[in-house]
Design a protein that fits this description.
There is one protein chain. By secondary structure, this protein is an all-alpha fold. It has 2 domains: about 40 residues, no CATH class; about 230 residues, no CATH class. Helix 3 crosses helix 5.
């Protein structure tokens, strides 16, 4: 719900979920909360995030299915204020993140876990190499020992640093849909739903890729990194387009495809540069 829509809903005094008359802060029919400006503050967003970390809601299981079946629909429900029947977005993301890393650990596939050699060959590889040379000159670690410890810790830190994608994807969402004049916290929430869907997509792709590599007929095809990168780009763009269609159904198809392509490009840039740079620095200083 936009800032304007929230004010309208308050003035009408009707529930966003069941349309029953409101006579207090909560709907007497379905329990939906009457939204106010505090619900769109960053303080409320952070309070909500802490609360969802410490509780589990069985509605998560149903919403996981909705994330797969109708991408963007949960985001649309949240924007319109229909939230009482759904799990909190951050809690849904936490469970999604857990499922993704369980799959990633089994399939050994995750674009968010990059070994030391990939950091040294990246856009900030020269800077990373200088830091590595300095550390090896000062410490008793050999390059092999440092690499082993780095690659092990990367797996640990990526599980928490992956949350950086929520604000990083909220920014292009805000830019692409800035005419809607929504609170930035709304874009943070939409980004939470969107990136959660991407994790589910990557998890499914990891299982499919592992299965394909085990079959003699398809193994030569799926060994190619270039092919896997191209397929993941196409799948990510398709998901973004479906998500935008679910969240903003009035958007023309060509706009959805264009914005989805731009979102995919921004996601890849965010993955390769700021995310991996932060991941490298955190892991480097922990050794």
């Amino acid at each position: 719900m936009s800032a304007h829509a929230a004010v309208v809903a308050e003035s009408l005094g009707t529930c966003a979920t069941c349309r029953a008359p409101l006579h207090g802060p909560f709907c007497s029919e379905c329990g939906e909360k009457r939204l106010n400006r505090h619900d769109y503050s960053l303080k409320h967003f952070l309070e909500h995030a802490v609360d969802t970390v410490t509780h589990f809601d069985l509605r998560v299981l149903r919403d996981l299915w909705w994330q797969v079946r109708r991408p963007g629909w949960l985001a649309a429900e949240w924007l319109q204020g229909r939230r009482v029947h759904h799990a909190p977005p951050m809690q849904l993301f936490l469970i999604t993140n857990l499922l993704f890393y369980l799959v990633a650990g089994f399939t050994h596939f995750s674009p968010f876990q990059t070994k030391l050699q990939y950091h040294l060959g990246s856009g900030f590889g020269g800077f990373a190499q200088r830091l590595l040379d300095k550390r090896l000159a000062q410490a008793t670690l050999s390059l092999a020992d440092f690499t082993t410890r780095f690659d092990t810790l990367v797996h640990v830190y990526s599980k928490s640093l992956v949350f950086l994608f929520i604000p990083m994807l909220a920014l292009p969402l805000w830019l692409l849909f800035r005419r809607q004049r929504r609170y930035f916290v709304e874009w943070l929430t939409l980004s939470t739903y969107m990136f959660g869907g991407i994790l589910l997509l990557f998890g499914a792709a990891a299982v499919f890729s592992l299965t394909a590599r085990l079959l003699p007929v398809t193994r030569p095809v799926f060994i190619s990194n270039d092919l896997i990168t191209g397929v993941m780009f196409a799948l990510t763009t398709t998901y973004f387009a479906l998500f935008m269609g679910g969240a903003f159904p009035t958007q023309p198809l060509w706009k959805r495809v264009l914005k989805a392509t731009l979102m995919t490009a921004f996601f890849l840039v965010a993955l390769v540069i700021p995310y991996r740079f932060v991941l490298f620095m955190v892991t480097y200083w922990s050794i």
